[in-house]
Amino acid sequence: MNEPIRIGALYPGRIQPGIGISTAAKRSGNQAASPSVEFKDVLQSQLLHFSNHAVKRLEQRGIELKPEQIQKIESAIEQAAAKGAKDSLILLQDMALIVNVGNRTVVTAMDGSSMKDNVFTQIDSAVIISS
Fold first, then answer.
1. How far apart are alpha carbons 41 and 7 in whole angstroms?
2. pLDDT digits (tens, 9 = 90+) for 30-59
3. Angle at alpha carbon of residue 20, lines to 19 and 26, rounded to 5°
4. What is the DSSP track for 28-42?
5. Under a CB-based contact definition with an 8 Å cutoff, are residues 104 and 79 in contact?
């Protein structure tokens, strides 16, 4: 009981591979084995998300978004984020989208007929996209 404790004395066995190795060290050791993915590519693939509710509404209302429309929506989210918006209404042609700007997530979607006589609540901004 009077013996001093030395580092490594408590666990004299070998350390298993992967335990205690940082993610950066793992990556630097495995760089040649796996193809590199650029941060830009990951970011581009994560710019716009759709909640389950929004997907259901898009299907129910027969709304199909074309790639150029998605790019316009992403641009509108960027504009809203630059102004400090949190929850934004995005109007594009004959549809309306409620977007959580911080998560870049479309929360719900409406077509032209669903927008009539509707009140939009819990938004702090609106972006109108011209066609």
1. 43
2. 444 456 777 766 665 457 899 999 999 999
3. 85
4. HHHTTTS----HHHH
5. no
Hey, is 87 helix, strand or coil?
A: strand
- Pairing mode, if any, of strands 95-100 and 105-111? antiparallel
**Cβ burial, residue 104 (10 Å; 0-12/13-18/19+):** middle
Beta bridge partners of 109: 97
* Cα–Cα dist 90/107, whole Å: 11
Could you please report the per-residue DSSP string of 42-69?
A: HHHHTS-EE-HHHHHHHHHTT----HHH
User: The pTM is what?
Assistant: 0.64
